[in-house]
Design goal:
CATH topology: Zincin-like
Shape: globular
Number of helices: 6
Strand content: 5-15%
Bound molecules: zinc ion
Largest sheet: 3 strands, mixed
Number of strands: 5
Distance between the termini: 53 Å
Structural class: alpha+beta
Order of helices and strands: HEEEEEHHHHH
CATH architecture: 2-Layer Sandwich
Helix content: 40-55%
């Protein structure tokens, strides 16, 4: 069993995984399937394009503490960053655009019920703002304007 452990690790590192409860595992960006991976930074989610492929990462330890609507939103938001990567946007404008696209995708996929939207907005209200991210209340205002 121990002899096969390194091979198992290699397989785990190379195989794209899908976050738990992710409803849309076949998501593609610019024709290539999105690759999901665990984040190395705690309480962090991010997106990065490498070799033309969108890599989305998240903190698996924090994942279990999030409501399903927040999980779906975070992944959709990060995928939106991949799609918007070439758009000349300021950091805050990029966040607003990714938030807007995420809730519109969630709506089209049937994942934006009134209760999911309420849970999502309640969670985002507490998110702090920064030089790169608008404050939670500002993001909620934007989301409510974008939500169909
Ligand atoms: Zn973002």
């Amino acid at each position: 069993m121990i002899r096969f452990f390194p091979l198992l690790l290699l397989l785990c590192a190379c195989t794209p995984s899908v976050p738990p409860d992710w409803p849309l595992p076949q998501w593609r960006v610019h024709g290539a399937p999105v690759v999901y991976e665990a984040a190395t930074l705690p309480a962090h989610a991010s997106a990065q394009i490498r070799g033309g492929i969108c890599f989305v990462s998240w903190d698996p330890d924090r994942w279990d503490t999030l409501a399903p609507s927040v999980r779906v939103f975070i992944i959709a938001h990060e995928i939106a960053h991949c799609e918007l990567a070439s758009a000349p946007l300021s950091p805050h404008a990029a966040e607003y655009a990714a938030d807007c696209r995420a809730v519109q995708w969630m709506h089209r996929a049937g994942y934006l019920s009134a209760s999911w939207l309420a849970t999502l907005c309640a969670a985002i209200m507490d998110w702090p703002g920064s030089a790169t991210h608008p404050s939670g209340p500002d993001r909620v205002m934007n989301i409510l304007e974008c939500a169909p």
